[in-house]
Amino acid sequence: MRPDPAALAIEEVTSTAALEGLRPDWEALWNAMPGATPFQSPAWLIPWWRHVGEGALFTLALRAGGALVGLFPLYRYGQPEGGERVLFPLGIATTDYLDALVRPGWEAAVPDAASRHLALRAGCDAWEWPQLRPGSPLLALPAPPGWAEEVVPADPCPGLDLPDRVEDLAGRVSGKTLRDLRTVRRRAAEAGALRWETEAEGIEEPFEALLRLHGARWATRGEAGVLASPGVQAAHREALPALHRAGLLRFHVLRLDGAVVAVLYALADPPGRGPRRLYFYLSGFDPALERLSPGMLLVGRAVEAAIAEGFAVADFLRGRERYKYFWGAADQPTFRRRLIPPREAPPCAAC
């Protein structure tokens, strides 16, 4: 039987407490979605809203027979008078993939019902949804009748298809990059005692080291870096334990003579899902040790660990930095979608 949009109950979630109350059902829905990334999980988005989000929460929870079958984590930003009011996805700016969640089997009914409800109730001048992957529910959501729509390319997310064995990397990564990796590993070993650690040995110290190293690296460019905001830092600190418990977190930490000199912060698709992706979110290293190529050391370590763990793709996330292509990554498209309601007709002077 085809799911009936009329059978759906739609709840408007407009408070942080109500959003938090959705967590168990949200987690169950997220786990049922084979293509959902950690960026759509409540472990990531609830802390984002609590510490980074501004404006008015306007999330839709759609249920059928009491079961959550759709979640549109959205918020309104701007003033209803004297400026544009836009409907954005939760997680914007600090999140590389944005999206809604729709339970398999409900791909037509849920977006249709959500579109009609948002058109009636959201009260915004535009809906703007960036960083949407092909097949995204937000990309497929029907435009309300009469609305203008624009879909344009957004930042690509280069990804490397991983082989089954580390020995087969030569078929995916250039020979020069692999030779350079061997060279920098020898150079680093000659600089002192090296030790690699993971999040299994703790999550607080790696994150605090990342803050320090990421900030120091960006300071050499006269910029603050994406972790400078206290709100962003607080969101990550709250998210990390839940991500760790769910198996979604990976830290790769490099110590040189006992001191942390480089950190890679990555997110992972959950155990048991396939094919799994590892998302290289942020890194930081001591700029005084740039001659040791710590960035290459981090990526080499993470790629090899991902292969050993059975990941199918190393996702370098948004941006066209040159090093990603040295590793054989190919662009994966994302899109920005903007929907604008019809303008009210101007008053008729002859009426």
Automatic annotation (TrEMBL):
One of its GO terms (molecular function) is acyltransferase activity. Residues 176-324 form the BioF2-like acetyltransferase domain. SUPFAM superfamilies: Acyl-CoA N-acyltransferases (Nat). Gene3D superfamilies: 3.40.630.30. Keywords: Acyltransferase, Transferase. Signal peptide: none annotated. The keyword Transferase applies. The keyword Transferase applies. Its EC number is 2.3.1.-. This is GNAT family N-acetyltransferase. It comes from Roseicella aerolata.
